[in-house]
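Lab notebook, bench 4. Continuing the backlog of folding jobs that were queued last week. Each job is logged with the same field layout so the records can be merged later without manual cleanup. Today's entry covers Probable D-lactate dehydrogenase, mitochondrial, a 489-residue chain. Filled in by technician R.K.

JOB TYPE: sequence-to-structure
TARGET: Probable D-lactate dehydrogenase, mitochondrial
LENGTH: 489
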Amino acid sequence: MNTLIKRSLVRFTSKSHIFTNQCRSRATKASLLSNQLVDELSGVLGDENVSKAEVIREQHGKDESYHSGQPADVVVFPTSTEDVSLVAQFCNRNNLPIIPFGTGTGLEAGVSAIHGGVCVDLSKMCEIEVNVEDFDCTVQPGVTRIALNTFLRDTGLWFPVDPGADASLCGMCATSASGTNAVRYGTMRENTLNLKVVLADGRIIETAGKGTRTKKSSAGYNLTNLFVGSEGTLGLITKATLKLYGIPEAMVSAVCHFPSVQSAVDTTVQVLQCNIPVARIEFLDDVMMDAVNRYSSMDYPVAPSLFLEFHGSESHVQDQAKAVGELCEANGGSSFQWAKDADERNRLWKARHNAFYASLALRPGCKGFATDCCIAITQLTEHVIAMKQDISKSNLLGPIVGHVGDGNFHSLLLVDPSSESELQEAKHLADRMARRAIAAGGTCTGEHGIGKGKRHLLKEQFGDVTMDVMGQIKQSLDPKNLMNPGKVL
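JOB STATUS: finished
OUTPUT FIELD FOLLOWS
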């Protein structure tokens, strides 16, 4: 019989979201409507689950991106799918925008309330249900990836999709997140089996069928993948059923340094072409390595580098490492610096995950203009080099890092938020990077999403006809354009 584990994570006291300090909202029509209707909202959810406090609204109006924050008129904290449905019905009746909020770790201003409205913070919904023998789980949107893996610790299972930030798992579905393990385990698209979604009018659906958690299905349209990556523009995800994996018998990490960007990226391509099943293969350029050394107290050479990890049995891990080591040496790479015990591996990958903040520390007071594109792996070398050359000719500093195992790489362009010229230069560089990828058959974003900053690039990638089809889907599910308006389309 299948082992079922079900529990609700308690992350708050009952008073966590009671805010008594009120403030005057912006003098807009939307904010005036919110003032008039806040009592009705409080009647729906309870006073403790509704806030108009300025600090709370500001907090919920911004993410980690360079975009300026735009707060909603009110923030609500539902505790169930039924609560979310009631909020959606309320907003639909009163023509109020709905903006979902997970953990605020996005990079394309997906939580910005461009037109005001109601921000729906889903963090109070924290139930986890695990089917151990079936290798799957169902989580509510308040559950983050670290919380899930902590919960799974004694089951021998784990969830490997790792974007770096401790993001909400339902938020990761909404943005089609991936990260360092995607080369072996795939992205959220490949690991999401079913979603419970509240539509704009309050209706509740399960995208693969009620309670369905099979690994495959030929039944009907693939609505699950329609909502994965929809960024809150089609509905609010209130539950996600996800694949789980057995924790590998052995995990070994390594770092290798190279004389040039070309030799490091060429090594990555050769590793994949040789069908070596690496779990992680991450590229950091010399600027990023300098940032990582400073921020995380490392002493690695300041040179283009690969961070790698191997999963499997003890013998398979050794075979993988040996084969990759030979390819690295053939391309002029240094000998591996190994991280075999868990603490050392965690330290290495924490340094890699802190690359965003390490980059910001290179220029205190700056904002990070995050770029992101994805291309075929055989074109990686020329595209990474082209971006590095563009940055070197500019007035900006921009470390480069990439999940190069699946053709996805990024640069974090550091800009003075008060300098319009620097911001425009960063936009120019980011657009050049994305347009090169599109021209080569790639995509303008591999994992950051579109948000409000890349809508022009989405149209260039897909063209008018496909964009019209997307618009028709949006119109069908959200005819009043209330779901996260101003994003994606």
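OBSERVATION: Residues 10-30 have pLDDT under 50 and may be disordered.
SIGNED: R.K.
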